[in-house]
Amino acid sequence: SFYYGTFPAGFLWGVGSSAYQTEGAWDKDGKGPSIWDAFTHKKGKVFRNETGDSACDGYYRVKDDIQLLKELKVNHYLLSISWPRIMPTGIKAEQLNEKGIQFYNDTINSLLENNITPIVSLYHWDLPQVLQEKYGGWQNISMVNYFNDYANLCFEKFGDRVKHWITFSNPWAVAENGYETGEHAPGLKLGGCGAYKAAHHIIKSHAKVWHSYNNTWRREQQGMVGISLTSGWGEPVDPHSQTDRDAAERYIQFHLGWFANPIYRGDYPEVMKNYVGRKSAQQGLGTSRLPTFSVQEKTYIKGTSDFLGIGHFTTRYVLQKNFPFLQVSGYHTDRDLAELVDPNWPAPGPKWLYSVPWGFRRLLNFIKTQYGNPLIYVTENGVSEPVQCTQLCDEGRIQYLKGYINEILKALNDGVNVKGYTAWSLLDKFEWNKGFSEKFGLYHIDFKNKNKPRYPKASVDYYKKIISANGFPNPREVENWHRKAMDTCSTTHQHLAADSLITHMEMVTEIVLPTVFTLCILICIVLLVFYLRNHT
Predict the structure, then answer these.
(1) Would you say 428 and 378 are in contact if contact means Cβ atoms under 8 Å apart?
(2) What secondary structure does DSSP assign to 281-303, as a single string?
(3) 444, β-bridge pairs
(4) Which of 76, 82, 91, 78 is nearest to 55 (CA)?
(5) In the record, which residues are listed under signal peptide (predicted)?
(6) What value, to the nearest 5°, has the Cα angle with vertex 13 and ends 12 and 18?
(7) Is 125 left (phi over 0), alpha (psi -120 to 50) or beta?
(8) HSE on the CB side for 90, CA within 13 Å?
């Protein structure tokens, strides 16, 4: 049931995006290539072979996009820094890019001038390509020191103004999609070890950066360093079945616990160690495919988070499923489970993203119980709509935001320590291997127009109302928000239609007319040549 009430005073409302998905300018002003530049430039890796080369042109549109943030009346903006934009090869000793550093300085200053708090992620997937080519990226332990050098440069250059740092955004996807399935950059399919090895080095990198901040910067800068983990919720198909309950627990532990358990409890989840260890033994391997932490490493890693960032999008039903002995096992078969969905769940966007708000409250309560009720910021939560049609009246997103934000309010009443919410995302943008086919933005971008104008969807108006009311005051008011949001988007649709017509006319003027004119001249020349030849 829906719960009417307000959030505590001082609750933070925001919106987010990431560097590669929005900035564009992939090779401008001294930026080095990232693994996503290399990956998207290979044919067949991304839907319709689209790239983030220009993306939303965010590199050139900072002031415009900050105006959108002001329009939304958010408290904070979650952005990421592109490592190769400020350190082209990824190696501090080799080269720094002052223009890249200046870009982020200007962005941070502009945000603060407009009373918007920057929350900055150091890594949202765009590893410098040189580090991938030279060392194999996150497969190599040397990344720990390179990442620490990069993080310290960021603390040195921006830490006087940035007080909320995220080391990694959704490292699960970096490890699993980058090094096992190969769906994401760098596109490697390294069987049963690749994802576990990458995650192991990411966890060590996170811990080292936290200690660097703690020892060198914290006293002077007074900021916080956390990590952002994205996880679905797993609900047992049959809550009375112990095997289904165990399978649902494994789903969470293999997803969230893989990274959260070492940071909050000092080691990988027991169930992960047992399952991967047993499957490795069945394969005849001498040691587990899941790496181990030494006693010193466990102590070093435990407690290295001042807050926990949580990304959450959807839920799955889970049941036990035994995978037969396989010579090549991997992350998905190690878990011995199957995922199901309820066909009655709304799916406003892509097939994987079902709207199941109640799963969020359960996930937040799981975190409270498992990890000692840590300070939580929701760092990513949102839904996309399909690309087929421009949906400025995004009813599905409004219902999604309303439902999921309401479950956070319920979780707060359960005693969960949530301090802020970040809607994902500010703009329609490049969605990794899906290209531009999924639209997560509160603002629509007309990518066919060379100026890439931004248009507010109905959800902008609705989210603004939630922010200004700090929650959901009463049924009448909330219903009124919905009506007004729908009225607003109808007007915006008319603007978009008019602008699209103008863009079309400009295209006709710029391309078609010169082409027709050129053809006419060519025809005249040909006719003249024929005439002169016949005449002579």
Answers:
(1) no
(2) HHTT-SS-SS----HHHHHHHTT
(3) 455
(4) 82
(5) none
(6) 115
(7) left
(8) 24
Residues 6+ apart with CB under 8 A from 286: none
**5-6 vs 233-236, strand pairing mode:** unpaired
Select 5-473's CATH number: 2.30.30.30, 3.40.50.300, 3.40.50.720, 3.20.20.80.
Answer: 3.20.20.80
Which two structure tokens, joined as six digits, stand for 460? 């902008």
The tokens for 530 are 């024929």
As given in the structure block, the two tokens for residue 407 are 């479950």
Enzyme catalytic residues: 380
- For 200, the token pair is 């192991």
First to last CA, the chain: 92
Beta-strand ranges (E) seen in 258-374 are 308-311, 315-320, 337-340
Contact between residue 172 and residue 229 where contact means Cβ atoms under 8 Å apart? yes
**Contact predicate 51/23, CB 8 Å:** no
26: nearest Cα among 15, 18, 17, 34:
34
Instruction: Find tokens 């959450």 and name the residue.
Output: 312
Q: Domain-by-domain residue ranges, the chain?
A: 5-473, 474-535
Tally Cβ neighbours within 10 Å of residue 319.
18
Cβ 326 vs Cβ 192: under 8 Å: no
CB 212 within 8 A of CB 152: yes
Residue 259 and residue 308: Cα distance in Å, rounded? 11
Q: What is the pLDDT of residue 327?
A: 64
**Binned average pLDDT, 10 residues per bin, the chain of 536 residues:** 96 98 98 98 97 98 98 98 98 97 98 98 98 98 98 98 98 98 97 95 98 98 98 97 98 98 98 96 94 98 98 97 80 95 88 94 98 98 79 92 98 98 98 95 94 96 97 96 88 60 54 72 82 77
Nearest to 18 by CA among 159, 98, 163, 119: 119
Look at the block and give the residue holding tokens 């627990």: 249
Query: What residue has token string 């790496």?
Result: 291
Q: Which two tokens stand for residue 293?
A: 């932490």
Quote the strand ranges of 74-151, DSSP E.
76-80, 117-121
Cα–Cα distance, 329 to 278 (Å, whole number):
11
What SS3 class is residue 481? helix
Strands 76-80 and 12-16: parallel
